[in-house]
Model the fold of this input.
Amino acid sequence: ALKIIKRASLALLIVSFTTEGSTKIFDYIALEKKIFVVSDFENARAVNIVKEYGNMIFTKNNVKEIKNALNEAFFNRANITINTKVLEFYNREFQTKQLEYILNSIIEGSL
Done:
């Protein structure tokens, strides 16, 4: 799946109240993809992570807005700055080290 995403020019993320734990976001960020977010939940955690990343287009979940956003995604090739701190923070290696630290702290009783 990651090979397909890597070749894509746009990554789709549909955010509902049930997708808050999706790992797709982190795959897209790691591959530095422009993320096309469709959601009616503008302040959802997943949407906020992608906003922080910066390389995204957000649209509400209705046909007219999706069509306009797709036109923007493919025809308005504006330079969008990727927040490299987000790339570093959501990196799988960094996150695994954070989890290791937390688990070791729990085992040692310091948390």
Notes: The chain is about 50% helix and 15% strand. The chain has a mean pLDDT of 86. The two ends are 37 Å apart (CA to CA).
